[in-house]
TrEMBL record:
The lineage of its organism: Bacteria, Pseudomonadati, Pseudomonadota, Alphaproteobacteria, Hyphomicrobiales. One of its GO terms (cellular component) is plasma membrane. It comes from Methylorubrum populi (strain ATCC BAA-705 / NCIMB 13946 / BJ001) (Methylobacterium populi). Its main location: membrane. Belongs to the DoxX family. It holds the Pfam family DoxX. Keywords: Cell membrane, Membrane, Transmembrane, Transmembrane helix. It is found in: Cell membrane. This is DoxX family protein. It is a multi-pass membrane protein. The chain crosses the membrane at residues 46-66, 73-91, 103-124. InterPro entries: DoxX, DoxX-like_oxidoreductase.
Length: 134
């Protein structure tokens, strides 16, 4: 039996799992900035760069979690993570493992993939017939 025949039916579902898990972890950054949970030393003003980032992480993460407007939201969040990497991490050091930006890079490309591949079958978009992967 070929491994591809066993795994192929699960590929769309695993795309949904990737979207759900990555958005849950991503949302924790927003809840930390905006809601102070888990406990955080700073509460940035909402109209600051960190406050807007927190709103994008919280609201965008929630939309991505349920799979609503997944493609445009994922594209925006991918851009946010690219921006975050070059503003906050790259100036510290050339190497992502040393500048703390490896998570930002990973989120950037996971969200970019979701923007192109769609949210998978376990999403509101798929239930509405929009944006589901083929």
């Amino acid at each position: 039996m070929d491994l591809r025949t066993v795994t192929a039916p699960w590929a769309p579902r695993m795309l949904s799992v990737l979207r759900i898990v990555s958005s849950l972890i991503f949302m924790a950054h927003g809840t930390q900035k905006i809601l102070g949970f888990p406990a955080n030393a700073s509460n940035p003003p909402l109209l600051s760069m960190l406050g807007i980032a927190g709103l994008l992480e919280l609201i965008g993460g929630a939309l991505l979690l349920v799979g609503l407007f997944s493609r445009p939201v994922a594209f925006i969040l991918s851009g946010q993570m690219a921006f975050a990497y070059f503003i906050a991490h790259a100036p510290k050091n050339l190497f992502p493992a040393l500048n703390g930006g490896d998570a930002a890079i990973l989120y950037c490309f996971i969200f970019l993939y979701i923007a192109f591949a769609g949210p998978g079958p376990w999403s509101i978009d798929a239930q509405r017939g929009r944006g589901a992967s083929s």
